[in-house]
Specification:
By secondary structure, the chain is an alpha+beta fold. About 25% of the residues lie in helices and about 25% in strands. Helix 1 packs parallel to helix 3 and helix 1 packs parallel to helix 7.
Length: about 550
């Protein structure tokens, strides 16, 4: 099929913190030098910010560099952190507060803000458009396009209006070729094109396996008498440790009598009966969480995987014709539970590298190795290097000893140990047979503090056009029932936070694996955690998925 095409100097895939910071920085440099560059940002969400989900306690270091006058420009950073409380939870009733002196320094949030990252991205998009960027929400990048020499040429946006069988509907609109001298991939965690690029160019051949968590989050209106703007609460321990898993929770008081509450479950857990969604519901019954939520109202829900392998798991970020940046590469600093500032900084460094190449006469297609030098001399490299032992220590020794290692490095050494710990085990390979694991029975939701998946998906405003091709691809359609069900009691039924996967019984008593792709909140957990790596997440039609307000 012959398709329409558009050409740009720079193409950016994904309107998150990294991509939008890159767009802004390129155009700043162009304005300063009197050059004209064409910059396009393509975003699969229905609007900028629709698919953005994070905690979020926001460190403004990169924003201070990008827009020193961000306050005057109206950036939505309205709630400075006023206090940090950290608890070790033992059960529903017992919570032990960690004395401030024993908290690793990276967990302190002086100078940070509680924000909606979606709103920050909406604001960044306004700045980019004001400088001349073309931002196209509702268009999903479905395929990487290559030149004859193998370098990246751009992307193909997904066809619109195609039915489940692959036939054009009355609303059919073919995708377009978006071409550029350089393409920056900033899709966020487990970007489906980033995943392909890492494999094609062997970008991770010298890296540890990437590691992930699944973050599940709700936005609540709470009783004004219980609201403390700027309060940050983190917890470790219960309920996850009761079932042999690790991770931690957060509760952040933003403005307007609202709080964010969420749980991050590390995806290296071994018990296939575990459900991160149900563990999150249990968390809310602990007295230190419940005391804020009681009498309140849940108004939004979302879920998203996070990359948490850190420095040791970072791939090479350059390849012929482009860069992979931000959480698409895995630059989140898990010792801080923050990745927005590191994503923004890598986007800015990528922008400077691309601008210098084009300014120097490059017509595109080169492997921009100069980026590696910029990155290695940057603050983000030092930050991630100094935190490189945090994740492996947590995985090897658990949260107590792992936390002690973090405290020793950050508070005593003021740096890092003179050696590097590694975790070389893939998260998906940690699953044990169901027969070897404790069966977990979760309580029914009370619809006051705890809820079911479907009512949760409803308030995520998730929607996909009816009768479109399923975007959750099975390499072997028979494997879930043939292999995963007898071995692992098909864990997709539980690790998915949106009720996408079900095992249902046919009239003849046989069972089938049912995929309710309409429910998908684009968290990517299935692509990460399936023990057979049989599920591949590809982008659905642009504009589909969740529409997160103020998240």
């Amino acid at each position: 099929m012959e398709r329409e095409s558009m050409e740009f100097d720079v193409l950016i895939v994904g309107a998150g913190p990294a991509g939008l910071s890159a767009a802004c920085r390129i155009l700043q440099l162009a304005q300063e030098s009197g050059d004209e560059l064409t910059v396009c940002v393509v975003e699969k969400g229905s609007e900028v910010g629709a698919h953005i989900l994070a905690g979020t306690v926001f460190e403004p270091s990169a924003l201070n560099e990008l827009f020193p006058n961000w306050k005057e420009l109206g950036a939505p950073l309205n709630t400075p952190v006023t206090r940090d409380d950290i608890f070790v939870l033992k059960n529903e009733e017992k919570a032990i507060k960690v004395p401030n002196a024993f908290v690793p320094k990276n967990m302190h949030n002086d100078g940070n803000y509680i924000v909606s990252l979606g709103n920050v991205c909406r604001w960044l998009a306004e700045q980019a458009e004001g400088m001349g960027a073309e931002v196209y929400p509702g268009f999903a990048a479905s395929e990487v396009l290559y030149n004859e020499d193998g370098s990246v040429r751009g992307i193909l946006t997904g066809d619109m209006g195609v039915d489940e069988a692959g036939n054009p509907k009355d609303t059919y609109m073919p995708g377009m070729e978006l071409l550029a001298k350089y393409t920056l991939f900033t899709e966020g965690c487990r970007g489906h094109l980033g995943k392909q690029l890492i494999e094609k160019f062997e970008l991770d051949k010298d890296s540890d396996p990437q590691h992930y968590g699944i973050g599940i989050k709700e936005l609540w209106d709470i009783d004004p008498a219980k609201h403390e703007p700027g309060l940050v609460v983190h917890t470790a321990g219960w309920p996850l440790d009761e079932n042999g898993a690790s991770g931690g929770s957060f509760l952040y008081h933003l403005e307007n009598n609202q709080v964010y509450v969420g749980l991050i479950t590390d995806l290296n857990y071994s018990n296939p009966h575990l459900s991160p969604f149900e563990e999150f519901q249990r968390l809310k019954t602990n007295k230190e969480i419940k005391k804020y939520l009681e009498g309140g109202k849940r108004i939004s829900y979302g879920a998203r995987a996070i990359t948490k392998g850190g420095f040791n798991a970072l791939p090479k970020m350059t390849f012929p014709g482009g860069l992979i940046l931000g959480c698409d590469a895995g630059t989140l600093n898990f010792s801080k539970i923050k990745g927005s500032h590191t994503a923004m900084k890598t986007g800015m460094l990528g922008a400077e590298t691309v601008f210098e190449a084009i300014k120097g006469g490059s017509t595109g297609g080169e492997d921009l190795v100069a980026y590696a030098d910029k990155y290695k001399s940057s603050s983000v490299y030092k930050e991630l290097y100094d935190s490189r032992n945090f994740g492996p220590a947590m995985h090897k020794f658990g949260s107590t000893i792992g936390g002690a290692v973090a405290f020793f490095e950050q508070n005593i050494l003021r740096g890092s140990l003179p050696f590097t710990l590694h975790d070389t085990h893939h998260d998906y390979a940690q699953m044990k047979p169901a027969s070897e694991c404790k069966k977990i029975t979760y309580p029914k939701p009370d619809n006051v503090l705890t809820f079911d998946r479907l009512s949760s998906v409803f308030i995520s405003n998730t929607n996909h056009e009816e009768d479109q091709r399923c975007h959750l691809k099975l390499k072997d359609p028979e494997l879930p029932i043939r292999d995963n069900l007898p071995m692992y009691d098909e864990p997709a039924q539980r690790y998915c936070p949106a009720g996408v996967y079900e095992v249902v019984e046919n009239d003849d008593g046989s069972k089938k694996f049912q995929i309710n792709s309409q429910n998908c909140v684009h968290c990517k957990t299935c692509d990460i955690k399936d023990p057979a790596q049989n599920i591949t997440w590809v982008t659905p039609e642009g504009g589909g998925g969740p529409n997160y307000p103020n998240m």
